Amino acid sequence: MCDRPQTTASSQGYTVTNDLNDIPSIALEWHRGGKGAALATVVETWGSAPRPVGSQLAVSGQGDIMGSVSGGCVEGAVVVEALEALEDGASRLLEYGVSNDEAFDVGLACGGTIRVLVEPIGAGFPEDMLAELVATRAASTPVAYTVDTTTWERGVHASEMFPDRFKSDKSGFEGATFVAIHNPPLRLAVVGGVHIAQSLLPMARAAGFAPVLIDPREAFASAARFPDTALVHDWPDAALDAFGIDARTAIVTLTHDPKLDDPAIHKALASECFYLGCLGSKRTHAKRVARLNEAGFTPAQIGRIHAPVGLDIGGNTPAEIAISIIAQITQVLRKS
Question: Which of 28, 116, 131, 209 sees the fewest Cβ atoms within 10 Å?
Answer without folding.
Answer: 131
